[in-house]
Amino acid sequence: MMNKVLCALFLMLPISVSGQYRSKVWCADKGDGTYVNPVLNADYSDPDVVAVGDDYYLTSSSFNCVPGLPILHSRDLVNWEIIGHALDRVWPDSLYSGSPAHGKGVWAPCIRFHNGEYRIYWGDPDQGVFMVKAKQPQGPWEPPKLILSGKGIIDTSPLWDDDGRCYLVNAWANSRSGFASVITVREMNAEGTRAISEPVIVFDGNGTENRTCEGPKFYKRGGWYWIFCPAGGVSTGFQLALRSRFPFGPYEVKKVLAQGDTPVNGPHQGAWVHTKYGEDWFLHFQDKGAYGRVVHLQPVTWKDNWPVIGRVPERGYCGTPYLSYRKPKSESILVVTPEESDAFDLPRLGMQWQWQANYEPWFGMPTSLGFFRLFTFKSNDNFWSVPNLLLQKTPADSFTATAKLKLVSKGEGQLGGIIMMGIDYSALVVKRVGEGFVLQQMTCQDADKGHPATVVPLADLPKTGQDDNTYQFAIHEEIYLRMKVNKGKVHFAFSRDGKHFMEVGEPFKMREGKWIGAKIGFVAQEPQAKSNRGWIDIDWFSITD
């Protein structure tokens, strides 16, 4: 009873109090007035940020993952926490329910504060431009509206001008539109909900080093219209700044950030932030392969009325990334990071978790009993098409993920365990075989092509108990499963008592997903549809070094 009361009180706490989690594996705040990049060492790709007073709110691409459009909050651009999501489901619902639509959905959102409302715009390359809005960044967010229909329209960013007129800049996805490497601008109605002009090409990167120009963000400062956009490729490119006295151009262009002699490859799209203290900063992502697209913070210095991002060169305007720098001016002393570990003690799922498709209750449910229940789902020998994988982003280059769980099985072949998911994946699972269980490693290469997993038995596990009073007789196995990650390699281990772990299986090389980094989490499957499904009860999940 006391546990339930405490849970209820916890849910009533303000977000700023309840969300003060500090990672054991990565914290950008060095505690001495400086920070180290990346400020978010997780896959928050295509980040955009809006400043409202002392507060900063960040969102990023979520593609087919649900809930989508994560909302992160910071008081200093260094310490971030997840405070919610703007999308409970990806729209249109029918396209993102059932089998996962990998790599589709929410591409490169832009968050703005306009007329007392928070708005997020994004392009779905197959549908068009969507918009959601809310009075508070924590929500509730209104259902998404399709404000511009079309194929290939991506990376949208609105700008409300001083006279109340609204403009929208965007890039184009060659896979849908048949062309790319151009930036276009069109006028919207004053509400920003309908296009009232056709697009105009204001920048063309074709045939130059500025190919693959994309991810534009629209701003106005000192009478100049600014478009910040990356070019040259996601993992190998650089950042451009375009300026004009008119929204439709013509635009001057300069390269303002590149890798130089740093390890920060292809500093890609992001957000220019002007703070209440008069400082300018730029957040951008770095593509780290299987770890996803992590977020860096760079100072912006003005030179001849051009922004130089990062370390200022002796000549020219192209900066290079800082690996460490002083923190932005702020009154906040809070050190916080996005949540990773989860005790599953609350009757809601932690905000760090996502599904591969729009959620349904038969995926799994939180409980008030101190665990999360993930139901087995019928699948073949490939988890790529399974909607109810419970996953979160990898939190650092090196970490250990450990979970305590119980597989409750009512039929032959039901299994559950932990997984490192991507286009290649590997899972350490417990599988029902006869009246006992087998620990096995399931590894798949090129899962997106439908290849079956290779299954390697590792150990026989006698059942730890049976349930005679359930709807159908069941046996269960309680176990601790672990993965240690370092330099892109995964090593699995298990324990029966939570103290003594034995390494098992073959090391696995992580691989990214479709436009996302590899993700860690849980799988629960069965070979055929049953009216008496099994499940895993996940007691806790812990991220340590």
Chart the SSEs and their pairings.
Elements: H1 2-12, H2 15-18, E1 34-36, E2 48-52, E3 55-59, E4 68-74, E5 81-87, E6 107-114, E7 117-124, E8 128-134, E9 145-149, E10 153-160, E11 166-172, H3 174-177, E12 182-188, E13 200-204, E14 217-221, E15 224-231, E16 238-244, E17 252-257, E18 270-274, E19 280-287, E20 293-303, E21 306-309, E22 324-326, E23 364-366, E24 372-375, E25 377-378, E26 390-393, E27 399-409, E28 415-421, E29 425-433, E30 436-444, E31 454-461, E32 465-467, E33 474-486, E34 489-495, E35 502-509, E36 519-526, E37 535-544
Parallel strand pairs: 25-36
Antiparallel strand pairs: 1-22, 2-3, 3-4, 4-5, 6-7, 7-8, 8-9, 10-11, 11-12, 12-13, 14-15, 15-16, 16-17, 18-19, 19-20, 20-21, 23-24, 24-37, 26-36, 27-33, 27-37, 28-29, 28-36, 29-30, 30-31, 32-33, 33-34, 34-35
Active site: 46 (proton acceptor), 214 (proton donor)
Site (Important for catalytic activity, responsible for pKa modulation of the active site Glu and correct orientation of both the proton donor and substrate): 155
Keywords: Glycosidase, Hydrolase
